[in-house]
Amino acid sequence: MILNGIDTIMEAAHLFKGKKLGLITSPTGLNKDFVSTIQILHEHFHLAAMFSPEHGVRGDQAAGAMVETYSDPITGVPVYSLYRKDSKRLSQEMLDEVDVVVYDIQDVGTRYYTFIYTMLYALEDCAKAGKEIVVLDRINPLDGVTVEGNILKPGYESFVGNYPLAVRYGLTAGEVAMMANDQKGWNAKLHVIRCQGWDRRMLFPESGRIWVMPSLGLPRFESALIYPGTCLFEGTNMSEGRGTTAPFEIVGAPFIRAERLAEEMNAQKHPGVIFRPVYFKPSFSKFQGEQCGGVQIHITDARAVRPLETGVHLLFTIKNNYGEFSFLPPLKENSRPFIDLLGGDNIYRDENVDVPALLGQFREESRRFEKLKAEYHLY
User: Rounded to whole angstroms, how far apart are CA atoms 79 and 2?
Assistant: First the structure.
């Protein structure tokens, strides 16, 4: 069986014994027997504090909801928020409570997914405070070799992209931590407890592990696999399927002609996917309670699919054929439109985009990132 870092934690007990531990985790922080990392650290070591990312350490907070400080009802351990209105950082007061910060959250290998920045912020904060940080590594469900998309440009940093990663980056969380620690010159006291038995060419279904939702928006492996492409629709007036049972697999809006769009997309013959016309009424989020037309993207070959390229083609097919389509305005005054933050560039809003040329540029940037990331491979 493939083992994640938490599965072999007792082999690294010397990193934890006699120290006050602060844990950053989520509902995916489980060992192979579905025992939580919270319980393991609480029972075997001194779990002094927990630090809550988006959604809360037990997944009881909605996407985007601010998390307040509270006591965990099961362990009694204080939980401090890393998802506050004013900051998503570890404060000095939080770090004073612990000797070591431990990170254990399942990543999905995509630049927009915010947990990776919670880890990188913690890494930088620990470096400044002289605290040790331990990453309990987990396999990348989208494999550790395939790279897609452009590299985030300076000036486009946000909580959906705060480090120059490709969109689909082909690294584990531990490897990203090692890369950032080196490239940024943070020199944090970083320890990565490695996975065991993982071949980085594996996609998640080949691992023998059971899928645990990293968040409610990614209920299945297929959701996570297509997410690098369809998450772009969060920056538009299209529904990305939130409020349906297939978020990120379904894309649509009231103005979309479902059969026509499915026919247009299938005619483009994208590898590994087929588009099916669908009608849906989201139960929340965009177009709540409104009838929408759209497509569901079904994956026919998980190895062949290129989700980012598929999503870009879908976005521009809709943009070029539906006058009602638009990009959303900036979320805050004097900030960039959300599509720019997701895209790591303003390219998607260019009125004269040559899609094949754009994807050619993306492939070149992916090749550059592949060479850079190879220096940090642990597997």
Answer: 30
How far apart are alpha carbons 77 and 25 in whole angstroms? 13
Note the residue count of the chain: 379
214 Cβ contact list (under 8 Å, min separation 6): 26, 28, 105, 106, 107, 108, 113, 115, 224
Buried b / exposed e across 27-64, counting CB within 10 Å, b at 16+? bbbbbeeeebbbebbbeebebbbbbbbbbbbbeebeee
Give me the amino acid identity at 352. N
Per-residue CA distances from 62 to 41, 58, 374 (Å) = 26, 11, 36
pLDDT in tens, 237-268: 999 999 999 999 999 999 999 999 999 999 99
Q: Is 89 exposed, middle or buried (0-12, 13-18, 19+ CB in 10 A)?
A: middle
**pTM, to two decimals:** 0.96
Q: How far is CA 92 from the centre of its chain?
A: 26
- What residues contact residue 379 under an 8 Å CB cut-off, 6+ apart? 144, 172, 194, 195, 198, 199, 200
Question: Helices H, strands E: what count in the chain?
Answer: 9, 12
Distance between CA 252 and CA 256 in Å, rounded? 6
CB 84, CB 91: distance < 8 Å: no
* Alpha carbon distance 53, 242 (integer Å): 20
Query: Residue 47 is encoded by which pair of tokens?
Result: 């779990």
Q: What are phi and psi of 297, to 5 degrees?
A: -95, 110
Task: Report pLDDT for 67.
Answer: 72
User: Of 28, 297, 54, 246, which Cα lies nearest the Cα of 141?
Assistant: 28
3-state secondary structure of 375: helix
Q: Given the structure tokens 């597997």, which residue do they identify?
A: 379
pLDDT digits (tens, 9 = 90+) for 180-226: 999 999 999 999 999 999 999 999 999 999 999 999 999 999 999 99
**d(Cα 242, Cα 248) in Å, to the nearest integer?**
7
Q: How far is CA 80 from CA 39, 97, 202, 258, in A?
A: 17, 11, 35, 45
DSSP for 8-24, written as a single string: GGGGGGGGTTTSEEEEE
